[in-house]
């Protein structure tokens, strides 16, 4: 945790977690070769979060190193359900369930996942997760 992400007592300021979550999600897409820059500016699509369920268990402190584990729980036609576990050493600090929806930046309506993105996301699916097949998949 960086100094600017903490309050005066050295405890992580929880809104900073959401910025970190965006960074982690962006890194997940980059891990299979799709940058958010490409999604937004070349493909003209957005990835808004439509729901978040955060659970806080322990405070993170100034100087802590956070370890993020992201799992895809379901891939729908245009939605993506993620669960992220955040730890400091072996302690879970917070968890989040998040739904992201792929949209057009022109009309802001949902769009089906392109085949290459859907294929990349499936790398993060556990065997019991749900997926909805779409044309071209």
Automatic annotation (TrEMBL):
It is an enzyme of class 3 (hydrolase). InterPro entries: 4-hydroxybenzoyl-CoA_TE, HotDog_dom_sf. The keyword Transferase does not apply. GO terms for molecular function: 4-hydroxybenzoyl-CoA thioesterase activity; fatty acyl-CoA hydrolase activity. Keywords: Hydrolase. Its EC number is 3.1.2.23. CDD domains: 4HBT (cd00586). It holds the Pfam family 4HBT_2. This is 4-hydroxybenzoyl-CoA thioesterase.
